[in-house]
Amino acid sequence: MIKKALLLILLVWFSVQTETFATSFKETEAKGNEIIQLFVAKKFFLIEAKVNSVYKESYSRFVLEKDWEELIGTYGKYMSAKPVHYDVSPYYTFIAFKINFEYLPYIFNVSFNEKGEIIYISFMAAHKMYVAPDYCDVSKFLERKITITNGIYEMPGILSMPNDVAKAPLVIILVEAGPTDKDGAYEENKPYKDIAWGLSSKGFAVYRYEKRSNNFGIYMAKDKGAYEKFTPREDLLDDLYRAIDSLKTLPDIDPTKIYLLGHGQGGMLAPLVAKERDDIAGIIMMGANAKKTQEMMIDQYAYLSTVTPNKKAEYDQQTINAKRSLDKKLNPLTEHSKMPYEVQATYWIWLNNYKHVEIAKKLSKPILLLHGDRDYQTNMENYEMWQKALSKNKNATLIHYPKLNHLFYSGEVQSTYSEYYLKSNIPDYVVNDIINWLSTH
Q: Does the pTM of the predicted model rise above 0.90?
């Protein structure tokens, strides 16, 4: 009885929150647009009149005029504006607009208190921060923080929740290998955020979270020093399964429509998750290797030695370590310094025994496999291996993109690691392919 009452309270709370969000967004967007038009009309004294008294010195008409005149003098006349971020709390509403000037875009940020008074204004260069791509509609979803707890570990995460869906299908993002955060960030580039916001704009809930190693490096270093067992289960899967268990109980999530989107190593592990978890309805594999991880790494080092020859000695050493880690009789207590990236030998032993391609072939659940032709981390040989392995699987859809790299960013020349830092977003056609596939399942 108590559980039913609690569920009813949660349902009412989520319903009220969604309705409040929708109303609040429209009001905040209107107020933000009003401020922008006052800037365009150069009526700075009217903007100043809307500023809370505490902040009038910081945002006086003279300061605002100086900032605006500098902007239009450098970037040309104002052309248009589009909301690219929205946040709401009991104390303020915040909205950011991408302002298109004649030459380059800029970001305009403004916050209002509960009385509708301005408490914050700023202009920021668009190339120095994350800017949502045009296919993201920030009026369509709300983000809320959800932390996944697994023993001593707490993994902060964000659920992007569409505001007009009573029971939303859920996509959980399983991140790439290495120190990858919830957004897959390379400075202001955030490919997982692109995906989350793009899908949530079309009615899908998306959860992305910090992997354990990002927040608990000290604990994990201690375990490493003691030669404790460490495998992809401790690195990714244990926390993912806890996330699935938690999220499927939310009243606004459809527990029958939970999908896993894995990128890189996350994609390689996706078939195992689909096999082990009955509550996963289907998997999306982006830039996933068909080869063994260490074989893929060896290919990477050979490629990088040709495009960045000044680091060849470093790549040669990593190649030696990768080949050593493929030994079928590898001792789990092998010195860390002799292993790829000094990760415990137990990690590589686990991967050596992981038959992900064979598992994928036996799955009956829907599979979407996406690959970039310019992906040097998981080259096209891997895609061709997946094509061959899944050629008879009617449940599998495979798509490759000629211009995309491992992050699914577009380019024309040979891809390198430094390219990941060039300002970019995942193209709309990739997100549309994911949405179309999800919509058919």
A: no
